[in-house]
Amino acid sequence: MVAPKPAVAPCIYQLRIVLRDISPLIWRRLWGRSDVCIADLHAVLQILMDWSDTHLHRFSIHGKDYGIARLGGIAFADDPRQVRLTDFRLHRGERFLYEYDFSDGWVLEIRLEDRLHIPAHREQPFRRNVNTHSGST
């Protein structure tokens, strides 16, 4: 029997999301709760990138793949509704990948920029900042 991980108080993760191998640079900044499940993060990324969620995808985090299984697609060992970002105990500056549409090869590099305290009045789980050209930050 595996011992449960000690509970970690949720915080806000500030994530910088960069679409690899595209010029000009396309990036997003996302603020979201650390206890979000990766199934929900997948849905948010689809919206942020204006994608249609009609292709296979996977997250690669700490050398392991995670995602929502689809008929005829990749099978994953873990239920993406039960796997939360906080489970990975990411450090500032740490990166992981989100791949979408394997035939087109869209790869998002997601970096944890900061951890922020959750204000008591904060209801929304996500907030975004969008930039589609290179520049500072």
TrEMBL record:
<dbReference type="InterPro" id="IPR012912">
    <property type="entry name" value="Plasmid_pRiA4b_Orf3-like"/>
</dbReference>
<dbReference type="Pfam" id="PF07929">
    <property type="entry name" value="PRiA4_ORF3"/>
</dbReference>
<dbReference type="InterPro" id="IPR024047">
    <property type="entry name" value="MM3350-like_sf"/>
</dbReference>
<protein>
    <recommendedName>
        <fullName>Plasmid pRiA4b Orf3-like domain-containing protein</fullName>
    </recommendedName>
</protein>
<feature type="domain" description="Plasmid pRiA4b Orf3-like">
    <location>
        <begin position="12"/>
        <end position="124"/>
    </location>
</feature>
